[in-house]
Amino acid sequence: ARHGTGHSQEDMYAIRSHSISHMRLPDAVVFPNSEEEVQSLISLAARKGWCLIPFGGGTNVSHATWCPSKDVDP
């Protein structure tokens, strides 16, 4: 769940109150080591229809790390 949430007050409350069950969390987390690995991952995701969510600083103030709801499953 760590890379499916950030450090916003809302995220911390959800984690600490064990109320993240309503949140959709990532199926996998990858740590590419090079630009080539990123390009390969993007190509594979495009072929397979996967949703990629980049992880930056981890603050998640814009909720950018939240997975889309299952109602909006790509």
Summarize the topology.
Elements: H1 9-16, H2 35-48
Describe the structure.
With about 70 residues, this protein is mainly alpha-helical. The protein is about 30% helix and about 0% strand. The protein has two helices and no strands. It starts with 8 loop residues before the first helix and ends in a 26-residue tail after the last helix.
How do you describe this structure in short?
With 74 residues, this protein is mainly alpha-helical.
Distance between the termini: 20 Å
Uncertain regions: pLDDT < 50 for 5+ in a row? Answer: none
Task: Report the structural category.
Answer: mainly alpha
Q: Percent of residues in helical segments?
A: 25-40%
Helix/strand order: HH
Specify the biggest β-sheet.
Answer: none
Portion in strands = under 5%
List the main descriptive attributes of the protein structure presented here:
mainly alpha; globular; 30% helix; 2 helices; 74 residues
